Amino acid sequence: MRRLEGRVAIIAGGATGIGAACAERLVAEGCRVVIGDLNIDEARNLCAKLGDNTHAIHYDAADEGSIKQMVDGAVSHFGRLDILHNNVALTSYEVNVQDTTVVDIPLTIWRQVFEVNVTSFLLGSRFAIPHMIAAGGGSIINTSSGSGRLGDLVRTAYGVSKAAVISLTQHIATQYGADNIRCNAITPGVIMTKNMEIVAADLSQIIKPHVLTPRLGKPEDIAAMVAFLASDDSAYVTGQALACDGGMQAHQPQIVDVRRFEAQQGAGVPK
Ligand SMILES: NC(=O)c1ccc[n+]([C@@H]2O[C@H](COP(=O)([O-])OP(=O)(O)OC[C@H]3O[C@@H](n4cnc5c(N)ncnc54)[C@H](O)[C@@H]3O)[C@@H](O)[C@H]2O)c1
After folding, report:
1. Domain extents for the chain?
2. Per-residue pLDDT at 151 exceeds 60
3. How is domain 8-264 classified at the architecture level of CATH?
4. Can you tell me the distance from the alpha carbon of 171 to that of 97, in angstroms, rounded to the nearest whole number?
5. Looking at residue 268, what is its pLDDT?
6. Helix, strand or coil, per DSSP, at residue 113
7. CA-based angle 234:237:243, to the nearest 5?
8. Residue 20 CB–ligand 1 contact under 6 Å
9. Ligand 1 in contact with 70 (CB < 6 A)?
10. Distance (Å, rounded) from C-alpha 15 to C-alpha 30?
């Protein structure tokens, strides 16, 4: 399918993982894609792989001026802007281990996470919306997380920041719908990027019994949703937070315990 012929997208935080898969899918759909990332080497490598319809821009999601330069740079390179995928997040090990509980999390980490995971989405949208209005409308897609919907033992800032992304999504959809700008969020479950394969091999064993599908998520699963939300196939979809998580949050939370209990009772494991 080439649903995005003639359109221009920015993927903010697009050099690796989910963002890279999204870039590949949007290009396959006929879109011209700017890949914004702090990791400019990976962004350039990806552009070299995906071809002339891509352009890498170095940006830092913690720096307002840098976000504006990325958005304006995309418009001056490709001449318009139709799609903004806010995908960046602070995913580094150093931040994750300090993102602990409400009592213990250092405020510097809380603020750092919010700066990148939430404020950069606000600013990217702020700078993109006038260009989208000039182009006749647009689609903003925000990567949230299943972590934004449920409490957790740790990673307080990450979870709360992803909940804020859902609310920001609804506010953008409400305020700019009349300008033909749609805004939706995706809440991925566990998505096995190369990085996740390395850091979360054990985690995936814990998660697997809670997922209803036979396999865990792939970056391409999110890319397919991004392509749908970017295209006119989703023309009447806005202000939504759509889960792509293999049904992980669709069932009674105790099903894994029920299966284990029934197995212990010799009743066999229900499918
Ligand atoms: N992988 C999962 O299981 C999963 C699950 C739920 C949500 N998500 C969300 O999906 C998105 C992508 O995650 P991913 O797993 O592909 O991670 P990733 O680490 O591969 O991608 C994040 C990208 O953001 C870039 N980045 C980090 N800090 C930056 C900054 N300050 N300025 C500019 N770029 C910066 C990184 O260089 C990287 O390319 C994130 O929003 C994440 O929270 C991922």
Report:
1. 8-264
2. yes
3. 3-Layer(aba) Sandwich (3.40)
4. 31
5. 64
6. helix
7. 95
8. no
9. no
10. 19
Q: Tell me, what's the pLDDT at 271? A: 64
Q: Would the pLDDT of 181 be above 60?
A: yes
Shortest-distance Cα residue to atom 18 of ligand 1: 17
Residue with CA at minimum distance from ligand 1 atom 20: 17
Catalytic positions: 158
Distance 258 CA to ligand 1 centre (A): 34
Instruction: Determine whether the shortest distance from the Cβ of 116 to ligand 1 is under 6 A.
Output: yes
Write out the H or E segment, with its range, that includes residue 244.
strand 241-244
**Rounded to the nearest whole angstrom, what is the distance from the C-alpha of residue 86 to the centroid of ligand 1?**
10
Atom number of ligand 1 nearest to Cα 191? 3
Average pLDDT of 113-139? Answer: 98
Give the predicted TM-score (pTM) of the model: 0.97
**Cα 11 from Cα 83, distance rounded (Å):** 8
Verify whether ligand 1 is closer than 6 Å to residue 148 (CB atom): no
| Ligand 1 centre distance from Cα of residue 192 (Å) | 12
Q: Mean of the per-residue pLDDT values for the chain?
A: 96
pLDDT digits (tens, 9 = 90+) for 78-101: 999 999 999 999 999 999 999 999
Longest dimension (CA), the chain: 67
In this structure, the dihedral spanned by the alpha carbons of residues 132, 18, 247 and 156, taken in order and rounded to 10 degrees, is -90
